[in-house]
Amino acid sequence: MGTDLMNKVQVVLSDDYMRGYIFIDDDRENPDQLHEDIMDALRQRGIVYGISDSLIDEICNHNMPAINLLIAEGTPPVNGIDGSYRYFYEDNHRLLPKINEDGSVDYKNIEYFNTVYQGDILMEIIPATDGSKGMNVKGEEIPALSGLACDIKVGLNCYVKGHKVYANVDGLVSFDGRCIEVSNLLEISDDIGVGTGNIVFTGDVKVKGDVQFGMSVKCHNLSVDGVIEGASVVVKGDLMVGKGIVGQECTDIQCEGNLTCKYMHSANVHVDGDIHADMIVNCQTFCGGKILLDGKKGTIIGGTTTLKKRLQAKSIGSELGVTTVFKLGEITNILNQIRDTERDIDEYNQIYKKTEQCILVLKQKLDKNPQHKKYRTLSAEYTRNKFTVQHKINLMNQSLLKLHNQLTESGVIELSVGTLHPGALFYSGKNEKHIQDPRNNIMLKSIHGEIMILDA
After folding, report:
1. Helices (DSSP H) in 297-429: which residue ranges?
2. What is the rounded distance in angstroms from the CA atom of residue 59 to the CA atom of residue 42?
3. Please, which residues have CB within 8 angstroms of residue 415's CB and are 6 or more apart in sequence?
4. Which of 134, 279, 418, 448 has a beta carbon 3.0–4.6 Å from 77's, enabling a disulfide?
5. Element holding 40 (H helix, E strand)
6. Distance of alpha carbon 192 from alpha carbon 317, whole angstroms
7. For residue 83, how many C-alpha atoms fall within 13 Å in the half-sphere facing its CB?
8. CA-CA distance, 272 to 287, in Å (whole number)?
9. 448 contacts: CB under 8 Å, gap ≥ 6
10. What global pTM score does this model have?
11. Which residues contact 177 (CB under 8 A, 6 or more apart)?
């Protein structure tokens, strides 16, 4: 109806075109024409969206006063949500004392709360979301802002799968707010002592000082710039000691890799790999590889050394005749295991034969009486036992083969020595050799238990 509205209807728009308000005089000239006048007034103002039909009905049919009533309202845009993250570990390398079950505090055993293991979930990255467009009352779209992506850098020894970050190695996780990474190296800037507590770490440990008396370290590779004194050390890899290992008869070293140090004194040392040192004095030593005493002194004095492969030294023992014992190989132990395994195999073979006989007897009985419940049950039970016994025999035969291979591998052991002093004792299997007089430049060999001393 344009400007010739019979009823005095006025529509006002907000500046952002998100709301429309209606004004109608109480003196309405033609109430029956009111609905059309309202819709016409809305069209004149360009309002096509968000119109409240229920409000118009109230105005037209119930004579509702209309003074600044919200007649139309747009839909505001909804901006997207920025990406975020959930980090599952401590943000720093805090060392905290262990709390015992009784509530007491153990200041010697320190827990590293951000130690992680390969495959652990370190972080969940929550992606940003897109926004939802809006619309004003004129029917015009209002754009929305999308959320910003979470800018997290995945660093060393981490990988992303889906929306989660995983550890690719065992180690220490760190996150500075921008980059997450896992380090498999724990550095101790001073000594391992009361200040640090005992160290249990799945990665490598580097100690710039000493490992003090009464402390313990368990890790993969261990590097100590100073000394290990009266401590317990267990490493899955290699152990490197800048100075030496001092036992006081309470140092215990377990090393699955190689050991390198300047000296070892009065310690219990078990090394599966090689030992590189200058001096070994009064130690209980096991070496699964080679012992190379290639330093300035290159000597081993006192104690007991179990050797499985080769030793090279400038001297063994001392001029004072200090008893220095060598156990060459583990032939006696292997032979005992072979004997025991063969005996067990014979016993199980007898059980297997008796079981087969019982199965045969039960089969004959069942041929005559196939429905006999007890015979059927016993036959099934003996058959199961037969397969169980056969499985055990197969496993023991595999073990026996491995033992014979070990016997072959440990068959030849060599010692290359510049000076062999009196007091040295060599044991190999059931044989032994006592050194009464000094010998120079010799090659001692143990071949399947037989000990021979040859001139080099």
Report:
1. 331-368, 373-409
2. 14
3. 307, 310, 311, 312, 313, 316, 326, 443, 444, 445
4. 134
5. helix 34-44
6. 34
7. 11
8. 6
9. 331, 411, 412, 429
10. 0.62
11. none
Report which of 331, 381, 343 is spatially closest to residue 359, judged by C-alpha positions.
381
Would you state the structure tokens that stand for residue 309, as one six-digit string? 């492969």
Contact 418, 404 (CB under 8 A): no
Are the CB atoms for 413 and 433 separated by under 8 Å?
no
Query: Which residue bears the tokens 């190695």?
Result: 169
Neighbours of 361 (CB within 10 A): 14
User: What residue type is 142 in one-letter code?
Assistant: I
Scanning the structure block, which residue is given the tokens 């060392």? 95
Residue by residue, pLDDT tens for the chain (456 residues) are: 334 455 678 999 999 999 999 998 766 666 678 888 889 999 999 999 999 999 888 888 877 778 889 999 999 999 999 999 998 876 544 455 555 566 544 545 555 556 788 999 999 999 999 999 999 999 999 999 999 998 899 999 999 999 999 999 888 888 888 999 998 888 888 999 888 888 888 889 999 999 999 899 999 999 999 999 999 999 999 999 999 999 876 889 999 999 999 999 999 999 999 999 999 999 999 998 999 998 899 999 999 999 888 999 999 999 999 999 999 876 667 778 888 999 999 999 999 999 999 999 988 988 888 888 888 889 899 999 999 999 999 999 999 998 888 777 666 788 999 999 999 999 887 788 999 999 999 999 887 778 888 886
AA identity, residue 364: Q
Which amino acid, residue 270?
H
Closest-CA residue to 265 (of 289, 288, 238, 241): 241
Q: Length of the chain in residues, anyone?
A: 456
Residue 449, both tokens: 């238990």
Helix (H, G, I), strand (E, B) or coil at 50: coil
Q: Is 303 left (phi over 0), alpha (psi -120 to 50) or beta?
A: left
